[in-house]
Write a structure and sequence with these properties.
This protein is α+β, with helices and mostly antiparallel strands. It contains three helices and four strands. A four-stranded mixed sheet has the order 1-2-3-4.
Length: 127
């Protein structure tokens, strides 16, 4: 568990609030915080999500997009405490149960940039 005691109170409050956003989409989150080695322009948070489903199950696409929906809602609130910056975003990696990368998403206040989407779930996008 990383240190969070040095963070501004509003950032700490938002990190503490993240599980609520995930639970609202049907997830049972088990969250761990690891502090970054430095901070510069770009990603204000890096989030890694491990989904308890196999890509082969055919169910992971819907779960992945539900996770992205929860993170997008949270990210909009998280970015609101940052100085205005078009490059500020939350970098998100989603993995399936077998360790396969399901998606790499960059979430900005204005929308989502899909860096990588696993081909087997691309057709379920947005569901």
């Amino acid at each position: 568990m990383g240190r969070t005691d040095y963070m501004p109170a509003d950032q700490q409050a938002l990190i503490d609030e993240l599980p609520r956003y995930l639970r609202a989409e049907g997830f049972v989150p088990d969250l761990f915080f690891r502090e970054e080695g430095g901070r510069g322009p770009g990603a204000v948070e890096h989030i890694v999500v491990f989904l308890g489903l196999s890509i082969a199950s055919g169910l992971i696409g819907g779960a992945a997009w539900d996770a992205v929906k929860a993170l997008y809602k949270w990210t909009r609130k998280r970015l609101s405490i940052e100085p205005p910056d078009a490059e500020a975003h939350v970098s998100t990696l989603l993995y399936g149960a077998e360790g396969a990368l399901v998606a790499h998403i960059e979430i900005f206040a204005k929308g989502i940039e899909q860096v990588y989407i696993h081909p087997s779930i691309a057709e379920s996008e947005g569901q």
